[in-house]
## 1
Amino acid sequence: MPTSGIFNGTNLIVKVDGTAIGHTTSCSLSLSLDMADATTKDSAGWSEGIPAVKSGEISFDGLVDYSDGTNAIELADLLIARTEVTAVFGTATTGDSIYTASGYITSLEQTADMEASVSYSGTITLTGAITKSANA
């Protein structure tokens, strides 16, 4: 049954090639639409635009656990090898909307402060069509 009402952010996950990125503490999906200039002399001094290129990005933060199915080391290997991945943003709940797209890991950072948990953060830049579907 799909999630209804306001829900806990813990339920949102990011998957890379079918496996959830381990121990994430936050994630976000950013979609954008560029506008092409369509201003002419007939625009009476007003800027006009038309919708143009769409793009998207998934960002995530987490705690490092090298035993996770998809962990910081594996994500770094994907970045270094320039490997295209399939990224999914959504919940694990059947019937909920999920967003799926191909993309590349374009940034990954691991941080190790003294006497603190080792953390990581990264970005997947999406390429091509982003599709919305119901989680099966």
## 2
Amino acid sequence: MISQKMEKEINSQITREMYSAYLYMSISANASRDGLKGIATWFMVQYHEEMVHAMKMYEYIIRQGGRVVLDVIQKPPSSWKSPLEMFENALEHEKTVTKNINNLLDLAVSEKDHASQTFFHWYVTEQIEEEDNATDITQKLRLIGDNAGALYLLDKELGARMLTVPSDFSKGVEAQMGAAA
């Protein structure tokens, strides 16, 4: 069983993860509009990853005998001035997500909830990767500056990103990932 406080906080994080997906879909649309198809692809893959994060939590609550309660998802911004601004925004957002995940793990520790501690360790590791990816691309964009040719090459590189997570949630995320978190 999961505590009511943990259930409530995980439900809140599901909403935040759904917002993350919504934010990255919005950035993808903005990049597409600007002719940056590779960046649009990168952010659409990121959208799918965030949906998986939310669905893993959804499934966890249910497996722990809790109740999933969905909330309103805040409207994300719809316009960015440059690819650099897109990725700087993504990096700052991921830092906020990391803080939220750390708070969930702290709650699990304080409640001596070993199952949730184990569950959230996956997210801690995931957030290291999320921040690293956004930092790497942000640094590249800063180096590129106004060089259109370099931006073209980076856009092409980012467009090669492939979806490596399940996108069909009808049979469960964990089962498709082959994990038992």
## 3
Amino acid sequence: MVPIINYSTVLVAAIASMVLGFLWFGPVFGKKWIALMGFSEAQMMEARKKSMVKTNLILFIGSLVMSFVLAHALIFASAYLNVNGVSAGVMAGFWNWLGFIAPVTLGVVLFDGKSWKLWFLNNGYWLLSLIVMGIILSLWS
């Protein structure tokens, strides 16, 4: 039997990623992120005046794509590792982060001159986001 992707769960996982991003880069680490990025308050105010609807819509589409692809990765991970539930979600999220997000984002430090602190802050979000999405996808699919 071929597993079927639950599109409602993909949507919920994408929304969870967006909510987590709002909290992570807002009340939890927002001021630290702004400082590490080297932005001034004036620059942040200017960015907020721009089309936040368009920006958030694009980010949401990206979250949907990531959730959809992670749902497929979870099917393979569950079969390959013979795990289900929360363990499968955590493992799929972690291995996808380690294999795809962490290495690709190293360029921000190595070539763009950003700090390791910023790398860890951003990657902490991606790791947690993928794990949360993986758990949601594994439990509700």
## 4
Amino acid sequence: MREKKQASVAEVSGAVEIDVTQLADIERGALRPTEDVLLLLISYFSVPEDDATRLWDLAGYDKPDTSPSSRPEPVADASQQVMVLPMDARVVYTDMAHVVSNKYGVTVNFMQSVGLAGQPLAVARVGMSREHAQHVLELLQKALTVPAPKLLPAPKPPSDTSANS
């Protein structure tokens, strides 16, 4: 898919935010992508759902037991790399979102228009299970619900106590 799109390993690994050697190992079959990385690759390449299902099955995630103990070990010469990034608390504003969903999960690509042509640039990618996506949707709906303004009660008319005195 990468070669068909005429993208370099560096371009694709940067787009899905994984190490270049990790992507090369995945392409060679020396390393199985994690579920999150596979969802990001499926989203990046805009893989149709039928093909995405085949890729999911090929990666071995079609089995009911996908716990870490049941997953096949990577090939002995493949090294696991861990990337630790500092936490960035800045807020990134977007004006577009591209959502890809299949029976395994949801990937949301948040994008921003850049340049004169308004070419979309992905500023954040978030992958999650369908259950988590449903929870996020509920939270968004709750956050976007505008409560009715609370009004003070109308003032009571003054009672005429001076007439009795």
